[in-house]
Amino acid sequence: MDTAGNFKTSSIELDLDRPNIEDYLPSGSSIQEPRGKLRLRDLLDISPTLTEAAGAIVDDSFTRCFKSNPPEPWNWNVYLFPLWCCGVVIRYGILFPVRVLVLTIGWIIFLSSYIPVHFLLKGHDKLRKKVEVSIIYLLKFLLFLRVIYMYIREQNCENLVFLYFNVLKSPEVVLANCAQCIPYFLIYSQRCLVELICMFFVASWTGVVKYHGPRPSIRPKQVFVSNHTSMIDFIILEQMTAFAVIMQKHPGWVGLLQSTILESVGCIWFNRAEAKDREIVAKKLRDHVQEADNNPLLIFPEGTCVNNHYTVMFKKGAFELDSTVCPIAIKYNKIFVDAFWNSRKQSFTKHLLQLMTSWAVVCDVWYLEPQNLRPGETPIEFAERVRDIISVRAGLKKVPWDGYLKYSRPSPKHRERK
Q1: What is the spatial distance between Cα 24 and Cα 28, in angstroms, rounded to a whole number?
Q2: How many whole angstroms from its chain centre is CA 211?
Q3: Range 364-389 burial, b when 16+ CB lie within 10 A, else e
Q4: Ranges for the Phospholipid/glycerol acyltransferase domain (predicted)?
Q5: Contacts of 11 (CB under 8 A, 6+ apart)
Q6: What is the 3-state secondary structure (H, E, C) of the chain?
Q7: Which end of the chain is more exposed for a tag (fewer CB within 10 A), N or C?
Q8: For residue 204, what are the CA distances in angstroms to 194, 281, 363?
């Protein structure tokens, strides 16, 4: 913690076993080493005991939020071990290759359709106009064929003359309609293609997802918030609705997808290490929710992945936009695999491989009743009320911790004592 009282963050996640307890104690309660002759007050000083007790409490309720819960061993006996071996052969030898093939086919279909659409929308106005003109001439040709068909069928010269002079001789009308519709068609195609590739991702895990409640619709001044277990939360929600999500900027192939594909649906990126990003992102959020044509805004207000047993404090930024908040609750069934992504121990690629080599990913998604800020209610109270709604619906335990504590540095004094 610095002199201003803010936690220092880094661009990478530190492997901390427990948070810095000294940050939760008053400034005057630091432990002093006895100097010289021991006194009675030194012997009666119980601050070390209190520190250890506080550490146990914090470790119990904080670090458990970010720990994976491996299943209990069940296959170490004579009659279950052979069945487990058969399951391993099926999962790795049959299901995994089939899932890789499905995902590969999905990427081929997606890229072959997405690249031309993205190319036309990304600043290639001349080429797009040529395409528009080509479509216009195609429509005129189809109209001409229809005129010939009507003439042959009915032998009606009046219809022929009327259609020719009122349709084929009015290219400016067709041009205006086509020029206005084609960009919207391309944008809609991008949304559908992003939903399509997310469907292929879910299929590659044999995802069994049950959605409850009405499907989200595109409306101005509304924002969707959800609890956060893994990056696959976004994929599961995106396959139903093309959300614009607020997400940490990632390196590698995930970052490449963020800057190319996901940017086309209006996603917003930030970097925890950059304090100025908060103001920029806040402005982008306010501008995004005001536009009726933008994709629905999806925010994970916890700010980090939690193991789907707990919910940590919600950031108030999503609740200061003067918009309707639509809660979404996600609950994973760990019968086949734990969907929690512990980013401190594994990359997202390894996390996907873990899902693709499991039997299935089972989860429930609830679209809950929209909520609005009540009179006299602060954004923090509003955030806690929405968190309570999500926690109750998904059966999660609320804890009074800020998820960003996971990224804080321990003080040098604490590390020396350890």
Answers
A1: 12
A2: 17
A3: bbbbbeebebeeeeebeebbbbbbeb
A4: 222-333
A5: 271, 272, 273
A6: CCCCCCCCCCCCCCCCCCCCHHHHCCHHHCCCCCCCCCCHHHHCCCHHHHHHHHHHHHHHHCHHHHCCCCCCCCCCCCCCHHHHHHHHHHHHHHHHHHHHHHHHHHHHHHHHHHHHHHHHHCCCHHHHHHHHHHHHHHHHHHHHHHHHHHHHHHCCHHHHHHHHHHHHCCHHHHHHHHHHHHHHHHHHHHHHHHHHHHHHHHHHCCEEEEEECCCCCCCCCEEEEECCCCCHHHHHHHCCCCCEEEEECCCHHHHHHHHHCHHHHCCEEECCCCCHHHHHHHHHHHHHHHCCCCCCEEECCCCCCCCCCEECCCCHHHHCCCCEEEEEEEEEECCCCCCCCCCCCCCHHHHHHHHHCCCCEEEEEEECCCECCCCCCCHHHHHHHHHHHHHHHHCCEECCCCHHHHHCCCCHHHHHHC
A7: C
A8: 16, 33, 15
* Residue 417 phi, psi dihedral angles, 5° rounding: -65, -35
Question: To the nearest whole percent, how much of the chain has pLDDT over 90?
Answer: 28
Taking Cα atoms as reference points, which of 335, 341, 342, 330 lies closest to residue 360? 335
Q: What is the pTM of this model?
A: 0.71
Structure tokens at 132: 């528009």
In the structure, what pLDDT confidence band is assigned to residue 229 with cuts at 50, 70 and 90? very high
Residue with tokens 């890789």: 100
Longest CA span, the chain: 120
Q: Which whole-number Å values give the CA distances from 179 to 130, 173, 187, 265, in the listed order?
A: 11, 10, 13, 21
Q: Give the pLDDT confidence score for residue 372 in this predicted structure.
A: 92
Q: How many CB atoms lie within 10 A of CB 333?
A: 15
Q: Give residue-wise pLDDT tens across range 291-328.
A: 777 888 899 998 888 988 999 989 888 898 888 999 99
